[in-house]
Amino acid sequence: MGELLVGRPVLRQVVAVSAPLALTSAISMTYRAVSRDGDPVLPSVDPWFVEARARLTPEVQHDLDLLLGFSGRLLYYAEELVFSFEAHEPDRLDSSYDEYHQHLLDLPAIAYQRMAANAVQRYYRDQETPLPPPENGSAEDWRAFLEGAVISGNLDELVELVTHPQELKNRSLRLLEQFWSVCYADEFERDHQSLQRAARRAQSLVHPVVQVSFAELTGHRLPENIAVHLADVERVTYCPSSHLGSFIQYIYYAPELILFFNPATLLDSQQPPATPASPTAVEIAETAALAGMKAIADPTRLRILGMLQEREHYAQEIVGKLGISQSAVSRHLSTLETAGVVSVRPDQGMKYYAIDRDHLRTLSGYIHGLAEK
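RESULT FIELD:
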């Protein structure tokens, strides 16, 4: 008998449209892409980021540089904020910005100081020069701790801010609230349907090998500095982020990996060829019809559709009725959703599934059309 080893969870891959994660992507890109003078600092950067920064008040532009500029080039403080909310967890993936904001509002001020300290510690670990945070509120100790991780912003102001946690909390909240309300809320709402379409398309392209999935979603090879962490990753979450263009953006927060992708990359490649207009033509792309037929050509998925004929069900109900594992049910539901055969309605942290009857009728019409001369 072989050596006794500790088991490791199977790596999971999910695709999600997440307001808190997309916001983190957008605000980080705005910091990276635009100089303090308002000029682009990255080639081919989307002008949206330049315009977004210009819409912020001077005070909030200042906070953007200060708060995102003290935890190394990977902007770890912004990651700490969103990971304190656990936006990557299944029951949080559909969370709104308001839920994220309320969570941050409810955190005690000292939690913001701890998040700042953890962000800087992560930076020093990357440099292989681990440095513990101060054990007290000494400004000089904090200065020595922060100094090596500051990219932008005034060190004196930063020390003053971190040693007064309530002010750190207030300004962190002000930064996120103004960026969301002034720059991103309308943009996210306007793009939401296309983000959902990109997510469904991405779900159909996810491959057991992360490098292959990443290449399918972005058209790029997975950078080596991300690939080296895969052995320690338990879950990869793919999140569409508007305006990302050809840039690669990610969050590695062991054991979680968030990979952002440009939704336009998938949607542009999915445009169906133009067909002559006809009042009796069945308007469904051949690829969509094939996906629909593949989705329903499975005994278990047909049983699920039979359940949904009567009314919508939440996932756990389906698990109980089928008597198979939750992970298997999730895979079947994902296949049906990706093909457009079922629709999903999130409600209070749960997902309710229903038959998309219009899509099934369109699919039926496509099949019927094959029998016609």
